User: Fold Alanine dehydrogenase from Mangrovimonas spongiae.
Amino acid sequence: MTIGIPKEIKNNESRVGMTPAGVFELTKRNHTVYVQKEAGEGSGFSNLDYENVGAIILDSIQQVYQSSDMIVKVKEPIAEEYDLIQPRQIVFTYFHFASSERLTLAMLKSKAICIAYETVEDEDGTLPLLTPMSEVAGRMAIQQGAKYLEKPIKGRGVLLGGVPGVPPGKVLVLGAGVVGIQAAKMAAGLGAHVTILDVNMKRLRYVNDVMPSHVVTEFSNEFNVRKHIQTHDLIVGGVLIKGAKAPKLITKDMLKNMRPGTVLVDVAVDQGGCMETTKVTTHENPTFIVDDIVHYGVANMPGAVPYTSTLALTNVTLPYVIKLADKGWKQACQDDKTLARGLNIVEGEVVYKEISEAFGWENTSVN
Ligand SMILES: NC(=O)C1=CN([C@@H]2O[C@H](COP(=O)(O)OP(=O)(O)OC[C@H]3O[C@@H](n4cnc5c(N)ncnc54)[C@H](O)[C@@H]3O)[C@@H](O)[C@H]2O)C=CC1
Ligand SMILES: CC(=O)C(=O)O
Ligand SMILES: [Mg+2]
Assistant:
């Protein structure tokens, strides 16, 4: 198979879809790998690093898309990339379709096979290709939140860890999944008081077992959310309903009950956000203010730490890339149900029901 690795063009996205180690595994199996010039630079990989393991470097993104049966990348295609995608081309990347009707329509029109990292799902319901990036984003949420709590950038002016004689800051984490647990762990490590909410009692029991006593679990319901937003300095949104739009746990009317300078880091922004006033932002311009509340809505948080994130992502994607390359998508998905759950759009048809539901569509195909 021919496999193409384009350079990411989303704002401040420095990850790349494959490392030289991944290319090595594919060329060893007689696949051809095209890498766009400088695609790996932001993650510390030169053109020569790729050439040394048998990749062919192409000058332009157009050449990569035109030459490849399968595109392996990181982020969802952005508007400039829509027309590059070819009918029956496999595109293996994050898509987050439920948050963008425009992207969904463009991919339907392309007649490509869109396999979304974020819905590849193991038998036990875990998401092996989302997990490492959620680990990164959960940890980063506290780093970012701590920074935006500083007064010069309109935060409340609270030091999360406090100091001797002064109580620590308070962090509220919505969702005790991968993002939530990593955020709670980082916040607890800084000495902050942490409250973590989920609707899944198994997750809360687990958190209660493994976290120190200044991480307190509570069931997630509107009453508890309304109560805690009044007293917490930093609120991290990490809820997910697989493949679907995130539920809005913090509505606009609730902002007036928060103290000015409270910081909201809505990590779930890529699935539409779990806070009503969330908007997608970029690393260049990560925050905005609504009713004196600081909002952070970067949808590619791990893109800012590519040296860590590219390795963490490609560690988990490579085994599936190899299966797709060796067998083609149909056979690979027949043989591996985990991978098959990643199929979102196939040649003009939505094959993942939460996506059609997100837009209220009954008909799932275009002609
Ligand atoms: N902005 C970014 O750069 C990144 C965003 N993400 C996003 O972060 C989100 C969370 O991802 P993960 O932690 O991996 O998901 P996960 O599936 O591990 O955890 C989600 C948790 O939300 C809980 N939940 C569902 N409804 C809830 C409710 N009403 N109240 C409280 N909890 C509720 C679930 O029970 C689950 O424990 C996803 O949308 C993911 O795409 C992940 C990585 C990077
Ligand atoms: C998961 C995701 O959207 C990201 O890593 O950017
Ligand atoms: Mg994202």
Residues 131-303 form a domain with the Rossmann fold fold (CATH 3.40.50.720). The first strand starts at residue 2 and ends at 5. The pocket of pyruvic acid (ligand 2) is lined by residues 94, 130, 133, 270, 300, 302 (CB under 6 Å).
